[in-house]
């Protein structure tokens, strides 16, 4: 059980960050300790070597001015003054024959100089291990002219004790600071990740269906604030999509219920009694019309979904929007004439070439004109305009219809949405949704402005195709 709890603990990001920073701190501390200890050892060794060099120069001067007797006397005075158990001095001939020595009773068996030191011409240092002392000694060999070699040695016990004290103080301090670093690191990690914990808890509530829960800011780190903003924006988008889904579901239920009810009524009529062949044919034709209406609605829904998702690729070719607007106007002219609606065209002479799917663009503008005809009363007017605005082909369709209420205007692009004033007008509420999907699939823009009893204007902009495309 304890091993399982330990494993779970290190799955926590706060624990991992604490462990990481603790190990990093420990490694850096040990590195600093190693550098300081190395420099301290080097400085202590340098101090001893400089003392050896100074003493060596003094011995050379004494030997040069006072001869062997003065040198022998200075050897004994030097070792007795420093302490015979801390310092020793021996004088060798050039061929390493011992000539004079200080009191060596506390030094035990000192090793003899290496044969490589014969005929030494310049000072030389070495460090040796002692058998009579638990430590080391530093040795200096100083040539005295061509005939003698002076060997000086001192114990390194003081330096070793100083280094041992330094190590002890360091590791005691290191242990205390390491515990403090773990505590402070864990606190800082938990404090830094407090915002993440809030996000996680709120996300858990959202995943359980509580979409009303939002994350509030509490002076978190900038990265956490960005995360909170993104999640709140995503949550708002989810709520909007769910609301739209509910509206679409309600509208689908409403729009599908009527044709299904009519089909059922026709079927019940055929079962209510014997009908003539002509009546059966009439009812069959009505059933086919209702089925075609349902199939058309379903196909439009699928086309909108595929266009929005980019599943069906556009068959892009150079398309002249001016020609498409003229064709659409000509196609709907008989309908407009029957209702005494005047359609005016204002199209530039130069072609408006865009890269697009001709069939879909034609359907989009046909839907816009059809929609304008539906809501324009008899004797009204519809104006079509095509021009180039900067690098954009701009198509504007305006009418003198009843207009759209301000509260309904933001929702006209939603699938199946139909304002209350348009419920009596034939249609499924999918036309403008399909138009918007097609225009956006062409990287275009579409905008609508309207007011009740003041008509409606739809403006479409699609980038002009590059020359040679």
UniProtKB/TrEMBL annotation:
Top class in the EC scheme: transferase
Catalyzed chemical reaction(s): ATP + protein L-histidine = ADP + protein N-phospho-L-histidine
Keyword line: Kinase, Membrane, Phosphoprotein, Transferase, Transmembrane, Transmembrane helix, Two-component regulatory system
SMART domains, per the entry: HAMP, HATPase_c, HisKA
Cross-referenced PROSITE patterns: HAMP, HIS_KIN
GO cellular-component term (any): plasma membrane
Histidine kinase domain residues: 251-466
Stated name of the protein: histidine kinase
Organism: Desulfuromusa kysingii
